[in-house]
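Researcher: Last one for today. Full complex below.
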Amino acid sequence: MDMLITIAVIVVKITCIYGGMIVIAALTTLAERKVSAWIQFRHGPNRVGPWGILQPLADGVKFIFKEELVPDSANKWMFRMAPALSAMPAMMGVAVIPFAAESPLYKDSGPLAIADLDIGVLYVLAFSGLSIYGIILGGWASNSKFSLLGAIRASAQMVSYELAMILSIMAIVVMSGSFNMTEIASLQAGPLWNWNIFSQPVAFMLFLIATFAETNRHPFDFAECEPELVGGFHTEYSSMRFALFFLGEYCAIFVMCCMTVVFFLGGFEVPFWEDAPWFIQVGAMVSKVVAFLFLFIWVRWTIPRFRFDQLMGLGWKVFLPVALVNLLITGGLVSAGIL
Amino acid sequence: MASLLFYALSAIAVLCALGVVISRNPMQSVLNLLGSFVAVAAIYLLAGFQFLAAAQILVYAGAIMVLFIFVVMLLNLTDREESQSVWMGLFNGRILGSLAVFAGLTVSGLIAANGNFAPVDTISHDGNLDNMTLLAEVLFSKYMLPFEAASLLLLATLVGVMLLAKRERNGERHGAQLSSQDGGSEA
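Model: Here's the assembly. Have a good evening.
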């Protein structure tokens, strides 16, 4: 009986969290078009459903019915596998994100996360590192110069910024003394100034900018830079395979926003209110994440694109040394007992 | 259940390792290697070593394999089958290489099955195999010297590669050709 309840709790958690992520990712595509429209003094999609709310659904149906093209010269097997390889790791990262300190489903079932791993930080970093394979393979297998250039740019950029990202998180890990996401979030309970953003502003800035580079978002979206590369790594993709790349990108953005919130903005903790009920905590977590999703869209439609060599120079010559020095200082302060 | 999973994962790891040496397309070899790494990480996870599994994915699958793919893509290696017959391939070490991999895996499997390969001095871990604090303490006190030696080795490799790359840029193409051929047969 206990076994059955445990399995049921896990199934419910997986359904709710994954379902929620897919719904938020779909709504983010709508928000992207709406916000871009507002920024450019347009209306944006407003025909499908009230206020255009059903637009993602209409897009999905349209993608399913589009013709699927596979280029003659492409490596067929890898070409078909690449979108799945891109979307899967992006979606798997959400498994360790805690949404509340206590799960409401069953007594003592731990925090509201699919898996409350002791190595949660490493898990989510490992999967964000794997999500690059879909892009590389898709670009390479398409056998087109635009795709290949996009893929090479994406991989170079993600490898460089992954380093700065991991080093900036390590400062948080050193402060918290744990790789467990729930523990890192719980340590930021209490008053507002307990949030890590106030004790680690440098790490926060580095991490935030690195997430833009990791998810290939503006102003670092060289993998699909339209004026130079047509569509970048997904130039040759059409129909549902293209939609899968798209979905993977938005899921990756969602997971990155969750990580930012957990590491620097207290995760599910509500300021000045410890031990809030679970639905308040879920609400706090989701609203913080939505704020960061808005930031991603806002930046995309406001800031112009960098140049690729500027991006690599920034990553290696500025971010990496600053992150290292930040880690060194944090380590020194922690071992001296100040932080 | 656990042993069934273990055998399935081991089979995947071995098959992928064989695929690395057998496949004719370098990109396919690299992908097979990736599959092998992931399967080995899953075996670590099955044995209760969460940290080791995460490090395996993070370092090998996430960073090193990306560089491998980079090299393969940039060198633009194509299928090498039209230039050689199967027999030439055998002498080129494809089959010999796979046999060597297979023999190595068999030997390590036999050692693991017999179970008498305990490390010289096991750390006391009071049941918790995955204590990262303990791992860090041991790594930075007892095994400080080997740890530092390994990082020194990596640094030496880095400097050596820089030196080779610099010499190539100065007009000596010899080293570059050699390394590209090596990359072709090993990838």
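The radius of gyration of chain B is 20 Å. Chain B is about 75% helix and 0% strand.
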